[in-house]
Amino acid sequence: MNNMEEKFPRALWVRLIIYIAVGHVFAAFIYLLFEMGAK
Q1: What's the CA gap between 29 and 16, in Å, rounded?
Q2: What distance lies between CA 28 and its chain's CA centroid?
Q3: Where are the membrane-spanning stretches (predicted)?
């Protein structure tokens, strides 16, 4: 288990979570634009 923590440092996990969060917000924003455009 300790070997896994060495392969994936905490900074990498934080960066991954930020990228996923930004990606979801961006996708939601585009979805909202299409929903507004459809109406």
Answers
A1: 20
A2: 12
A3: 12-34
Share in percent of the chain as helix, strand, coil (round to 5)? 90, 0, 10
What tokens were used for 33? 């634009």
Tokens of 35: 């929903």
- How confident is the prediction for the chain on average, in pLDDT? 88
DSSP secondary structure, 1-39, as one string: -HHHHHHS-HHHHHHHHHHHHHHHHHHHHHHHHHHHHH-
| CA 37 to each of CA 2, 20, 27, 30, 31: distance values in angstroms, whole numbers, following the listed order | 50, 26, 15, 10, 10
Structure tokens that stand for 27 in this block: 């996708």
pLDDT of residue 6: 67
